Amino acid sequence: MIIITRPDATEAQIERIVDSVHQWGLKTEVSRGVLRVVIGVIGPEDKIREKPLGAFPGVESVMPVLKPYKLVSYEFRGTPSHVKIGPVTVGTPEVVLMAGPCSVESYEQITFIAKSVAKAGAKILRGGAFKPRTSPYSFQGLGKVGLQFLHEARELTGMPIITEVMDTKDLELVAAYADCLQIGARNMQNFALLREVGRTNLPVMLKRGMAASIKDLLMSAEYILSEGNFNVLLCERGIRTFETMTRNTLDLNAVPVLKAETHLPVVVDPTHGVGVREFVPAMALAGVAAGADALMLEVHHEPERAKSDGEQSLRPHEFDDLVTRIRRVAEAVGRSL
Asked: Tens digits of per-residue pLDDT, 13-49?
């Protein structure tokens, strides 16, 4: 349920509404606009319906959220959300670049790439310490050692880090190092993991599953928000179709649809979306033009020696050139970099 206050509602009236809702055993999410305050009421629907929400002084209207993804829906907050990852804010007019290797392979590798992408304009460092792989014989990541290398790279560059958590048993360890937790495509509907990251105070980037609809993605995000964590990013990273010329099909339709359906920021991952290095820049530019709040790109200084995803990783000079082009597209659509 959503409470919309009158333009002349006082702070005392707003506080009374919020306090009363809490006394009923319900939760609130308050969003402040220029003229009005929107108060989202969270809890069992039957319990909410029986409360006289419209009777409070200062209330202009009370509206039910009809969509199944209630907390995620744009109506719930009425304004785009901003998610802060360390010192970086995602969801503003500035497009944020997340860059780094698919996997953390060594201290020298991650620190070299981190310094390179930071110099080019990346604001957040990506890198996998725990890697979900199709084959059990493929490189699975360095685990805790990889997280420690990421920490060192953050110390050197000042960039916050985003890295994947694959299992609830690893959450405490990963959370001790990460500035943002990534839920990969294969875990998008791992509801136990979604609930656990929802109980942390860390930002979470939720990647769309390879065979998931947009509604599926939003419902998965609802699990995280329902546990109290509203610092969530949604990532379009390509879906499986009948097309075989690329690794996946990057669904850029999803970007404007998500921007209309939810208040959460939207990230585009063109690297996994196409899986072919030469096509990544074009889809990165298209993602910005479509309205993405951030891009996630894989960069490796020796992709031919990479332990994972070398064929789709940009070389540092290619990333540097792409950043210049991204800046031009961002400015053309009223954004910045």
From this structure: 999 999 999 999 998 988 887 788 989 898 888 888 8
Q: Token pair of 212, please?
A: 């998931």
Q: Quick check: 90 and 96 in contact, CB under 8 A? A: yes
> Please, are residues 264 and 221 in contact by the beta-carbon 8 Å criterion?
yes
Would the pLDDT of 164 be above 60? Answer: yes
Integer-rounded Cα Rg, in Å, for the chain is 21
Domains assigned to the chain: 2-64 (3.30.70.1140), 83-332 (3.20.20.70)
The gap from C-alpha 22 to its chain's centroid, in whole angstroms, comes to 29
Compute φ and ψ for 38, nearest 5 degrees.
-105, 125
Q: Provide the residue type at 7 as one letter.
A: P
Q: How far apart are CA 173 and CA 245, in angstroms?
A: 38
For tokens 């009370």, the residue is 62
* 3-state helix, strand and coil shares in percent for the chain, rounded to the nearest 5: 40, 20, 40
